[in-house]
Amino acid sequence: MEYQHLLYQVDKHIAYITINRASALNALNQQTLTELEATLLEAKKDHDVKGIIITGAGEKAFVAGADIKEFVDLSEAEAKLLSQKGHYIFTELIEQSPKPVIAAINGFALGGGLELALACHMRFASANAKLGLPEVSLGLLPGYGGTQRLTQLVGRGRALQMILTADLISAEEGLRIGLINEVLDAADLMNRVEEVLERIFSRSGTAVTAAIDAVNASNEQTRDGYQVEINHFAELFVTRDFKEGVDAFLTKRKPNF
Ligand code: CO8
């Protein structure tokens, strides 16, 4: 399928979703959000896809936020609908994806762009990346989950400092405060993310999915994360992957999941 603002391709079990609006530093307009939803659904149902990388086209930006130019004429009701649409995509299709989703942050990740990265399971950044939630400088606050997910990742004090000052931080600072998993030279970014995914693919897919769900439950009010972990742990005992993993360990060979 052809997309106007996204590139989508699958290679070696990885779905690559590249936000491609270089003229607006890959800002997420409504059309891009709709296309993001479509590609995520495509990746979800494709049995060949085992993991997803989200990145931005070009060398300057991952995603420089929601498209500010589209905000001008939005009513309160329309703003709410748009925020809800973003929440649905970021929470249900990215954070709750049974397949690992990694953000390869290749430049500016601002506002809704950083919120997109925050919804991913991991964030790897190039050394030139700049991160921030500058919404209060526009008279807004983060509207795609940033107030919650940034707080969960870096703690209340640091989240409030970033959100209230609207200041941008470097990738290195992001690494220091736990927002970024690893910082890499731009030329090495994609290779490293692919390497991490390949490592995950060598593990039990069933167990990986269960682990994502159990970790997600730690931040949910409607589920007891400890109970979710206990349930998944017990369920995994009857899977083929578990029998294979234990047998491989006992017979000193590599597992074949
Ligand atoms: N929206 C629309 N256009 C953008 C955006 C954006 N977020 N960011 C950059 N652009 C456009 C610029 O307008 C410019 O277009 P043009 O050439 O037509 O004037 C082009 O991209 C290049 O940008 P600059 O010339 O500004 O490039 P610089 O290198 O000088 O600056 C910056 C780069 C610092 C990234 C600067 O572009 C910037 O500050 N951008 C805005 C960043 C921002 O404030 N992002 C947060 C937006 S708000 C948000 O994300 C809310 C999320 C919650 C949504 C809830 C839905 C209801």
UniProtKB/TrEMBL annotation:
InterPro entries: ClpP/crotonase-like_dom_sf (IPR029045), Enoyl-CoA_hyd/isom_CS (IPR018376), Enoyl-CoA_hydra/iso (IPR001753), Enoyl-CoA_hydra_C (IPR014748). It comes from the Bacteria. Transmembrane segments: none annotated. Keywords: Lyase. Belongs to the enoyl-CoA hydratase/isomerase family. This is Enoyl-CoA hydratase/isomerase family protein. It comes from Sphingobacterium anhuiense.
